[in-house]
């Protein structure tokens, strides 16, 4: 069992915390944050390959959680899948915005300054590849997307994912294998 899962089993379940948070309970929100902040940061880092962007995404995810506290409903006993979804959506939005800004800068920059843009593009090649995978995950059917977010990006074990999703571990392993194959097909089209 992972450390994050062990911490999630201490104290009231996430669903109970979420109900308290919906009533404006700051202590319950603090407990939920302390329970899942490390997992969300790790997930954000896997999405962005940047410590500072992971910190920003962590903050934005929990800010969204606080803002949506009365509206959002947890479908599972854990808030982690919902937090991962919020994190992935924020990462995609920020990635798109940065791509638009980079394209605008490249159009506005004089020819002799384009070398710097090429250097920046070369340094962010790993981020581009990771963004391709995140975009491919967004194209997956919902059950495969959930498995990809939990097991492949979220680094949850198949046993923990099975418990979280309420299905057999063998089903999770089969979904992971199908999802990996599907991702290979989707990303091979986008990579040269």
First-to-last CA distance: 39 Å
Strand content: under 5%
Question: How would the global form be characterised?
Answer: globular
Instruction: Give the overall pLDDT as a whole number.
Output: 80
The low-confidence parts are: 1-8
Continuous helix count: 10
Overall structural domain count: 1
- Strand-and-helix sequence, N→C? HHHHHHHHHH
* Count of strand segments: 0
Structural class: mainly alpha
Outline the biggest β-sheet: none
Percent in helix: over 70%
Radius of gyration: 19 Å
Question: What is the strand and helix layout of this fold?
Answer:
Blueprint: H1 3-8, H2 14-22, H3 26-48, H4 51-67, H5 80-108, H6 114-123, H7 125-139, H8 142-153, H9 158-165, H10 169-190
Domain RNA polymerase sigma-70 region: 32-100
Domain RNA polymerase sigma factor 70 region 4 type: 133-183
Protein name: Sigma-70 family RNA polymerase sigma factor
What attributes does this structure have?
192 residues; mainly alpha; 10 helices; 79% helix; globular; disordered N terminus; DNA binding; RNA_pol_sigma-70-like
Describe this structure in words.
The protein is built from 10 helices and no strands. It has 192 residues and is an all-alpha fold. The chain has one domain. Helix 7 (125-139) crosses helix 10. The radius of gyration is 19 Å and the shape is globular. InterPro entries: RNA_pol_sigma-70-like, RNA_pol_sigma-70_dom, RNA_pol_sigma70_r2, RNA_pol_sigma70_r4_t2, RNA_pol_sigma_r2, RNA_pol_sigma_r3/r4-like, WH-like_DNA-bd_sf.
């Amino acid at each position: 069992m992972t450390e994050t899962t062990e911490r999630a089993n201490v104290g009231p379940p996430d669903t109970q915390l979420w109900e308290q948070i919906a009533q404006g309970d700051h202590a319950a929100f603090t407990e939920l944050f302390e329970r899942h902040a490390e997992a969300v940061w790790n997930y954000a880092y896997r999405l962005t390959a940047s410590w500072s962007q992971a910190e920003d995404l962590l903050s934005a995810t929990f800010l969204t959680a606080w803002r949506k506290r009365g509206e959002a409903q947890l479908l599972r006993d854990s808030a982690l899948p919902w937090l991962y979804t919020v994190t992935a959506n924020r990462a995609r939005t920020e990635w798109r915005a940065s791509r638009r800004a980079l394209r605008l800068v490249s159009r506005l920059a004089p020819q002799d300054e384009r070398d710097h843009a090429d250097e920046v593009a070369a340094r962010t090649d790993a981020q581009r590849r990771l963004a391709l995978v995140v975009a491919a995950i967004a194209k997956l059917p919902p059950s495969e997307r959930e498995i990809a977010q939990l097991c492949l990006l979220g680094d949850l074990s198949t046993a923990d994912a099975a418990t979280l999703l309420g299905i057999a571990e063998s089903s999770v392993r089969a979904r992971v294998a199908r999802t990996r194959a599907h991702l290979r097909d989707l990303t091979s089209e986008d990579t040269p």
